[in-house]
Recover the amino acids of this structure.
């Protein structure tokens, strides 16, 4: 497995502002993923962030709204831009181990937009 | 495209009773299957996985799941639950290779509540 930390653990932000979420892993991993868990719902994949390549976004998510950086094999950031109350969610990063077929999740960042 | 259906949104049971959490999936390709657990106010933890080999997989805390390809199911079972098993359980599927490599599709989750 891997130890994954996220900062901040929670935040309350005003609409129209941006928040950058950090994800740190205790070992080098190629595959990292960002998910969103809206209130009372399941997890939805936002994008895949592999080191050395541009992030790949899922349908319904765009780079202008959710820019991602992946500067090295242990770190990634997700920015939620120009926030609205609909962005209030838990954002989780995960890493893919065992050839990518096992994913381990960070503790999540609980975001509330007012 | 893949999809995962967890047939029960909430399952209340009494302590020491058996439980089954149902999961069905659809996919046009071979899949890997997972169960994740989210305890109250905690992150998501991998409970067990099916990648290949025996279709019956077990976790260290007494849960088991069986991959049934013909019924496209991966139901989670435990013969005797404890209060500490109270949590939300998510079934997930990923392609076994291909362009969707590593991506997980989650079900809606099942809240298991164990009563004394």
């Amino acid at each position: 497995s891997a130890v994954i930390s996220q900062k901040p653990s929670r935040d309350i932000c005003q609409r129209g502002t941006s928040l950058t979420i950090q994800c740190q892993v205790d070992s080098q991993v190629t595959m990292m993923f960002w998910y969103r868990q809206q209130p009372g719902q399941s997890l939805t994949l936002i994008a895949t962030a592999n080191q050395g390549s541009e992030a790949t976004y899922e349908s319904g998510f765009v780079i202008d709204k959710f820019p991602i950086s992946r500067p090295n094999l242990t770190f990634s950031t997700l920015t939620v831009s120009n926030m609205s109350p609909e962005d209030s969610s838990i954002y989780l990063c995960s890493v893919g181990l065992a050839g990518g077929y096992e994913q381990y999740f960070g503790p999540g960042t609980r975001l509330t937009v007012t | 495209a893949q999809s995962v259906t967890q047939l029960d949104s909430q399952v209340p049971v009494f302590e020491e009773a058996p439980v089954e959490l149902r999961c069905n999936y659809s996919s046009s390709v071979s899949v890997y299957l997972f169960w994740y657990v989210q305890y109250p106010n905690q992150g998501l933890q991998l409970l067990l996985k099916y990648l290949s080999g025996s279709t019956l997989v077990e976790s260290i805390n007494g849960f088991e799941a069986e991959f049934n390809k013909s019924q496209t199911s991966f139901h989670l079972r435990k013969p005797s639950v404890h209060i500490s098993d109270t949590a939300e359980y998510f079934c997930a599927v990923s392609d076994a290779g291909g362009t969707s490599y590593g991506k997980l599709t989650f079900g809606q989750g099942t809240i298991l509540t164990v009563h004394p």
Observations:
- Chain B has a mean pLDDT of 91.
- Chain B touches chain A through 22 residues (CB under 8 Å).
- The two ends of chain B are 41 Å apart (CA to CA).
- Residues 32 and 52 of chain B are 8 Å apart (CA to CA).
